[in-house]
Amino acid sequence: MSGFGMKKVWRSPLLWGCAMTFLFACEETTTSDNTNSSVSEPVAETPANCPDSDPEARKFDANSQAYLTEIFNYATQEVDFTDDTVTFQTVNHDLVFCRANNEWAILSPSLTQAEDDFDGLAFDELSDPPRETIEANGQTIQYRANLSPNPFPDYGKSPEKVVFELTPDGATEPLTLDLYTLEQVRQLGLGFDLGFPMVSRVVQIEDALLFAVISEQGEGFSGLTTLIRYDLNTNSLEKTQPINLIGEQITDMLATTVGNETILWLGTKYSVEGSALVPAKGLVTYTFTADTWQNGKTAAYSVHNSPLVGAIPTDLALDGESLWVATGSGICEFPWQQVKDWEAWNCWEFILETAIPTGGIPLYGSLLGTTPLTTLTPTGESATTEVYWWSSLTPMEFEEEANRLGRFEVAYPVGIMVTVPEGGYRWQNEASSQPTPPWETNVFWPGREWHWGGDRFVRGFDEVNINVFALGASGISERGYTDAGLLDVNAMRGELELVELTSASTTVQHFSGWVEDGQIEPYFSVIPSRKMQPSTPNPIKAIAPTLEEF
What we know:
Elements: E1 2-4, H1 13-19, H2 55-58, H3 68-71, E2 78-81, E3 85-89, E4 94-98, E5 103-107, H4 121-127, E6 132-136, E7 139-148, E8 161-167, E9 175-181, H5 182-187, E10 193-194, E11 197-205, E12 208-215, E13 221-222, E14 226-231, E15 236-240, E16 249-258, E17 261-272, E18 275-289, E19 297-301, E20 313-319, E21 322-327, E22 330-335, E23 346-355, E24 361-363, E25 374-376, E26 384-392, E27 406-420, E28 425-426, E29 443-444, E30 451-452, E31 457-458, E32 496-501, E33 506-516, E34 523-528, H6 539-543
Parallel strand pairs: 10-13
Antiparallel strand pairs: 1-16, 2-3, 3-4, 4-5, 6-7, 7-8, 8-9, 11-12, 12-14, 14-15, 16-17, 17-18, 18-19, 20-21, 21-22, 22-23, 23-26, 23-34, 24-25, 26-27, 27-33, 28-29, 30-31, 32-33
């Protein structure tokens, strides 16, 4: 039994495209069972070779990043293993797992953020994408995906297909493989134009390389997610386009083998115009043998049907027989051969917490509420509260170097009932050929970005779609947008109970409220996952037949 995986750090055409917004929509001592301890409380002695949390690193600062998309970006970008620790690097923290006591330390980030140096070079890379290099079995191999004909830099010629090129060691000309055509993308209902392709990941499995090719998505641009197999012995190329993966973007890919069977582990997401991180199917497996690699079987493990904490796996890492899955909302570890066993998963979730001032704090029912509904006060068992979100009081974040002013959404166990003048409707994408996941209700309603947690609807950090072209993140809002374009949101991440849903309106009880940001000091924690296996069905499924169809 073994696992393989290769990652590349490179400046890709698609990453350059993220800057081309007119073209692309890319992309503590924590934890003990006591989650209510203050950041300043003493902690147990740390085992040797395991660091202590940095109290300053745990503090939440709304001004720590230039954009709201980065303030709550807890997605892992790199994973590092030692005998004593596992370190997950994000733009906001280094999260260090101590193997000796299963606890976490939170440190300042060590990742160096790339500077925004977009210039004409981006157009050069789009018109002639650089070939990437990989070493395998002593061979140096170059590869790339490209549009044909390539329309850049002036977009004078419309692309008709996507091709993959691979140059074997010592060869002067590349092998080429046609992946898909514009006509196929349109026939499958995935888009109207060919998005720019890129090789997102490559893994080696014995004497073969497997490449994952994805496409830019948004504004009608799309493609067909393709797996390509290159035989190092015969210099042959083959492809497959699993129907359950054909519209997803692959964030990461690893391979494990047992007997004659190989499992590809894939992180998935979507992109839309203005947002690079939209939940897809979560963690997906593609299982095959050497003879059936083009007709493998897929299975999905998402926030809807598994212990996975977070909707978008951004980084996968093998540690012996264990698989680590990191998302923007938490981290999970499990023996990969027991992926179907809920009890085999060990998961931790990211939260923000704050102490409640002794004198209490005014609690508002919405971001822009002018009159407090009540005063949030500490009690013997709840001297702290969870902080779900922070929202600016300035439309579209146009502060221009000034400190942001805003409010925090905090947990409020009593709950607040609101009726939203937007209802739900059923929809069917008849043009799409992709099968519908079993958890999909095909109902659009104001709480659609929450998922069913078994007793309430819940929403992780990475389920908040912060769309920079659509007035930011959306949530439950009774009064909607102001004339200045600011959403008077009642709940952005607070838990929801659905009271009534019709085609005309939605009534929910949201278990959160809003406080002035100067009155609390949130800090970041990593705690054992509170997620339980759902015992009751999603109520939306029973309501769906009563709603109008769009």
